[in-house]
Amino acid sequence: MAIEKLGNKVCIITGATSGMGKAIAELFSAEGAQLVLSGRNQERGIALSEQLPHSIFVAGDVKDASYNESLVSSALENFGKLDIVSLNAGILGLGNVVDLSDALWNETLATNLTSIFSLSKFALPHLQKEKGSILINASIAAFKSFPNHPAYCASKAGAVALMKQMAMEYAPDIRVNAMCPGPVDTPLLWNSAQAFKNPDKAVENAAESTLLNRLGTPEDIAKLALFLVSEDASWITGTAMTIDGGIINS
Predict the structure, then answer these.
(1) 145 burial via Cβ count (<10 Å: 0-12, 13-18, 19+)
(2) CA distance 200 to 192
(3) What is the pTM of this model?
(4) Which CATH topology does 10-183+217-249 take?
(5) Could you list the active site residues?
(6) Where are the transmembrane segments (predicted)?
């Protein structure tokens, strides 16, 4: 019988109600993790927690610091400790620099970047006790520009920089890494394609531009997430790992 890679590990997963975050939650659960699931959609969150053993759902918005504090408190109160934080919440904030409103710029940075700082602030002391890890779901947008995505690109580049700084600051007690997905078949990708004149063609072109000639799946990302938070990656920290079907090299 295979040994569970995350047996007895307690994990907070943000953005858990759809896309990559949901796939990560499902795989982590299958590998024995006890989960605090975070998201704004209460109906989807409750349904997911009912499907996954040893999991609870806490509805809220990661832009709210008090909510992030409650996620950590929920992990401690329900499971007694905290080992892993998997950060997947994100929005696009579409619009070029001239047209993008200050409000949407601020909301995008708050969701995609400041929330990482906020949740990490509350989680780090407890992760230190368990020699735990933080995994940030960033994007190839940290390294590659896309039209009408200034807030998204800036937030993802900031997330990678923050990851590197925390990895340095909290080593050797805590490992901090980032994943940088390319085009993954999720609702966010299809929303992102709205920045192009022909959204369907943009998604088709993205798939064809990868060296592997297909879009990624949420399950592809979940497998990398599992590796990076498990003991299999015990000598990996401060790394932004691209998972993009080779599109950056195409």
Answers:
(1) exposed
(2) 11
(3) 0.97
(4) Rossmann fold (3.40.50)
(5) 152
(6) none
